């Protein structure tokens, strides 16, 4: 998760700097470059993810097991963290 967040914010920062540099060419040009870059990324993603398919039989991702009929049919295999009684009705959401 940490690597995911690091990559996300690094890309946001790099994209912001590139867009700022493109603004020197004018707003319309910067917006056109942004749109063309997004279109090129989408065109590149289609063949790269063309083989993505759902898991056979609807099997859960690793680390998850099926649970009863709930909003989500999968639950984490780790036990829920218990909070201090009376402080938060949802122990997993309690800030430590």
Q: Would you mind describing this structure in some detail?
A:
It contains 2 helices and 2 strands; from the N terminus they run H-H-E-E. It is elongated, with a radius of gyration of 22 Å. Strand 1 (64-66) and strand 2 (74-76) form a beta hairpin. It has a domain at 2-48. It has helices spanning 2-22, 27-48, and strands at 64-66, 74-76. The longest helix has 22 residues, at 27-48. The model has no long low-confidence stretch (mean pLDDT 76).
Overall outline: elongated
Major β-sheet, in short?
A: 2 strands, antiparallel
User: What string gives the helices and strands in order?
Assistant: HHEE
Strand-pairing-aware structural class:
mainly alpha
Number of helical runs?
2
Observed structural traits:
elongated; mainly alpha
Secondary-structure blueprint:
Elements: H1 2-22, H2 27-48, E1 64-66, E2 74-76
Antiparallel strand pairs: 1-2
Helix pairs in contact: 1-2
